[in-house]
Amino acid sequence: MAKQIVQERMLIGGQWIDRKESIDVYDPGTGELIATVPAASASDVDLAISQARVGARQNASLSVHERMRILHDAASYIDTNAGVFAKTIVLESSKTIREARKEVKRCIETLRLSAEEARRIEGETIPFSQMPGHENRVGYVYRFPVGIVAAITPFNDPLNLVAHKVGPAIASGNAVIVKPASMTPLSALRLAEAFLHAGLPAGVLSVVTGHGSIICDPLIQHNDVRFVSFTGGYETGKEITQKVGVKKTAMELGSNSPTIVLNDANITEAVSATVSGAFGVAGQNCIGVQRIYVEQSVYEKFLNEFILKTKKLKMGAKNDESTDVGPMISEKEAQRVEQWIHEAKNLGATVCCGSKRRKAFLEPTVLTDVPRASEIANQEVFGPVVIIEAVTTLEEAIERSNYTNYGLQAGIFTENIEHAFKAIHELQFGGVMINDSSDVRIDAMPFGGIKGSGIGREGVRYAIEAMTEQKVVAFKLQKRL
Asked: What residue ranges carry the coiled-coil annotation (predicted)?
């Protein structure tokens, strides 16, 4: 019997809406069609924005405790239905069942953090009397919501990265329109269900599914949209910044993250952390380890242990509890990474293990002797590939780490505090992890990069700051206090 395909609807202004044109959603592991979602048009974007205008006023008028209650109730709904959410992530994305469960837990944490940070949206007093002639004035700074937030989200964390935009937007009194990745829209729709169940006013949240080439420009360029939050590739982010005009943006644009291993490091811990950091979610992780620079005296030991541990990883079906590495998001993406590996090899790189591809599955791959001229050395590979190279000094490791245009996060393993602080000050990255790989994030921390890795910071508190505007209020008194 043929499996029944789920025909999903998108959410606009509290209403579930279908359209004649649709987008197919496939399981990247099997290639099986699992659902369809509406292919929204520019007029659907206009409808979502008109509803968001009402929703922004509704949310701005809610008391803080009401917003907190909605966020906590949405988190509780997800917690109660965690199995459904995890299964949805597994079906539409590259994540294994163990990775999906972790993402669901993080989503719950993100929404609960959003609720808690809602109570901490505070201003400050301004001593106007610091300037002669203003002795009779008192004032303060008040934070107001920006209004309508456009959130464009990627495929690699289809639930929690949506929550990182939706949670802070709701906490700070805004309306938010989500445009999820076309390959993984289902988790965003399940998240919307959680908010409707929690009693969120109808116009506050819309999830508009569709082709980015059709609906993104009308969304980000609309005058009523005052904040654009995008997570994705550098070229797309650059294009968005050129189109949005004078409005606030937050851009998380990926990386080519390095980790440094010095000769005083705990090699076993360094290998364990970097293998996990390189190959989790089949390498499709913006802070995943892509380059490792190892001090010469421990290079062979590190490399051999890394290869041995990599070969023990099990690649297979996402629902299998023992699977470590699932498929990439599509066969096309796996073919791209395979071509980059071949290019590096043709330029002189050595393939130490991996590199074989079967449809969307690409073996975890370790490369050495990779020339700087290769794509894989310079760009974000976003696949299960890591480069391991020997260096003679920390200075050389820092110089090579800083070489690319990316600067999201980096890691260093060392027992020397002087070396740690040198790395902290000289590595050109938004985050530096000591005795850990670059692949470290908690949902409360400021998250973002420099150079080509983006603009601004996510992390609940920091997103709330970006999604609010400061307003100065001053009172002129008749008498000096």
From this structure: none
Reference 289, options 301, 271, 305, 275; nearest CA is: 275
Q: Which position among 107, 109, 216, 286 bears the catalytic label?
A: 286
Strand partners, 361: 358
Phi, psi of 76 (to 5 degrees): -65, -40
Enter the DSSP assignment of 147: S
Q: What is the CATH number of domain 6-253+455-471?
A: 3.40.605.10
* C-beta separation of 28 from 328 below 8 A: yes
Q: Is 286 a catalytic residue?
A: yes
According to DSSP, residue 325 is labeled: B
Q: Which of 92, 103, 252, 331 is catalytic?
A: 252
- Model pTM? 0.97
**Sheet with strand 468-476: strands edge to edge:** 124-126, 137-145, 468-476
Q: Distance (Å, rounded) from C-alpha 196 to C-alpha 462?
A: 25
Which residues, other chains included, contact 464 with Cβ-Cβ below 8 Å and sequence gap of 6+?
114, 117, 118, 121, 168, 171, 172
**Listed residue (264, 263, 293) closest to 391, CA to CA:** 293
Residue 116 per-residue DSSP state: H
- Residue 1: CB partners within 8 Å, gap ≥ 6? none
**Contact yes or no for 8/35 (Cβ under 8 A):** yes
Domain limits, CATH 3.40.605.10, in the chain: 6-253+455-471
Question: What pLDDT, on the 0 to 100 scale, is given for residue 3?
Answer: 60
End-to-end Cα spacing for the chain = 82
Where in the chain are all domains bearing CATH 3.40.309.10? 257-442
Could you list the mean pLDDT of each consecutive 10-residue stretch along the chain, which spans 481 residues? 77 97 98 98 98 98 98 98 98 98 98 98 95 95 97 98 98 98 98 98 97 98 98 96 95 96 98 98 97 98 98 98 98 98 98 98 98 95 98 98 97 98 98 98 97 96 97 92 72
> What's the DSSP call for residue 233?
-
